[in-house]
Amino acid sequence: EADIYQTPRYLVIGTGKKITLECSQTMGHDKMYWYQQDPGMELHLIHYSYGVNSTEKGDLSSESTVSRIRTEHFPLTLESARPSHTSQYLCASSEYGGSNNYGYTFGSGTRLTVV
Amino acid sequence: LAKTTQPISMDSYEGQEVNITCSHNNIATNDYITWYQQFPSQGPRFIIQGYKTKVTNEVASLFIPADRKSSTLSLPRVSLSDTAVYYCLVGDEYSGGGADGLTFGKGTHLIIQP
Asked: In chain B, which end has fewer C-beta atoms inside a 10 angstrom radius, N or C?
């Protein structure tokens, strides 16, 4: 049973459209992340958050933006989609400190295609 | 964060034991070693985590020598469904990955044949 949910699972959209990828977790985790991954390639961190009202950019520059108004919700927005944004976007969460098991929990991902 | 090195790919056959070794020469005192599994078009899934010696769960075993500069993920009696990418990561509960998320690297592409 998934504790972190991403919607939509697949999305095909035209160039120039605004899109929001949704990510929600029910574990009460403080830290949340967005990764971008092309087929057969590495995961690249594009955004992360320590908690409510905290957002930071990751290692890979991205034209997307994120918000963290509620602990459980970490949506990612592309104001104007381009074909170069075609990729898989993975959301993850983790506890912050105080635990021996700090493992990440990932969602199933959103496969985005911009045409 | 400690950098990890693992083989790009490995092949094996159903029913065999598979061992994937990861090098992490610069591991810090507070760092844990965690392995993830990823199937195509899915997010990585936590497999096992350890700090030293040996850890075993229902899926795998993790062997960590005393110097902690390497670790070996052991998958007993693999099946076709174990074909996936396996990532070795190092960090502590605050770096979880660090101030800025864990770096997954390229991982090891494990292919299991009939």
From this structure: C
